[in-house]
Amino acid sequence: MTYRFTVRLLMITLAAMLVVATYQVMPALRMAYLEPEAAPRVVTARGDLAGEEQATIELFQSARDSVVFISTAERVRDPWSRNVYEQPRGTGSGFLWDNRGHVVTNTHVIEGASAATVRLADGRSFPAELVGRDPSHDLAVLRIDARDLPEPVTVGSSDDLQVGQTVLAIGNPFGLDWTLTRGIVSALDRELPSPAGRPITGLIQSDAAINPGNSGGPLLDSAGRLIGVNTAIYSPSGASAGIGFSVPVGTVNRVVPELIETGRYAPPSIGIRYDPRVNEMARREGLEGVLILGVEPGSAAARAGLEPARLSGDGRLVAGDIVTGLGGETVRGVDDLLAALEAHRPGDTVRLSLRREGETREIEVTLGEGG
């Protein structure tokens, strides 16, 4: 019994000595094998930025201050106390149009809001007043009373855009302010419904990441010029899927000055009444063009003597004049007519192509203002 106890005690003693020796040796092992690898790595010099990178950086720095952050609020009534208060509604983007404090954004950014605040890139915030809006193009103009404003965005052209051109978007997606994304022009002359229900035509499609909050921000070309206003995305998830749409600057440059001057946009009109549903039924029967259902008194159509459709004695609709072209553009339906009118202004004289009882003719009319 004493022998076994002695052997066990000896084994315990040896194990304890081994543990002590291990703890004494481990620091040396750590010093020998671990510490040299834990030292910071040597930094390798990067060298100059690539020319394309430098150009993008300079573009962002020059355009950033022209872009603004828009936050909106809505007036609600507490159902219990009946007190009225304002609560945050949403955020969006916009950009300075001129040195007088006019800010361009989308109609849907401020739709339903009772108040809007514009924050500049330097951190200053100002209450904004609504100057005018045009739901048919999803454009709106706000105004802030501020001094020492940054330079407004440089305006370019959308008439000569080509698929494949580089585009850049600056905005505030998901409230992440002054975010830059980059892509290319993916397609031109796209069409989407507007908040007013009629289609917005001539839209620029790009794959620059556009997300909720980018709405109203500028789409720029590689020279830093405004070529569009970001207005919508196509996405099953509601986030960027690489398909964004922008209102072309040609439309913006036509609509915004009218909003600033009069508070509304009056589209050009020839003074005819039509019904898209009736026209669609007529198209299914083989009719090409826009069936005139009425003529506004004193309008270009009235001065030109255009004849509307009428009902026969047995209740059938008898066509009068049918619009088949405007300004050199073929008109197959109502959307084509609206798109052709969009290329003109009130006061322009355009050539109108008509068909009546199988005969075609062309006349010139001077466009008036629509409602």
From TrEMBL:
Domain PDZ: 259-358
Alphabetically ordered keywords of this record: Hydrolase, Protease
InterPro entries documented for this protein: Chloro_Bact_Ser_Proteases, PDZ, PDZ_sf, Peptidase_S1_PA, Peptidase_S1_PA_chymotrypsin, Peptidase_S1C
SUPFAM superfamilies: PDZ domain-like, Trypsin-like serine proteases
Hydrolase among keywords: yes
GO MF terms, alphabetically ordered: serine-type endopeptidase activity
Any one biological process term the GO annotation gives: proteolysis
Keyword Protease: yes
Classification via SMART domains: PDZ (SM00228)
Family named by the database record: Belongs to the peptidase S1C family.
UniProt-recorded name of the protein: 2-alkenal reductase
Underlying gene: htrA
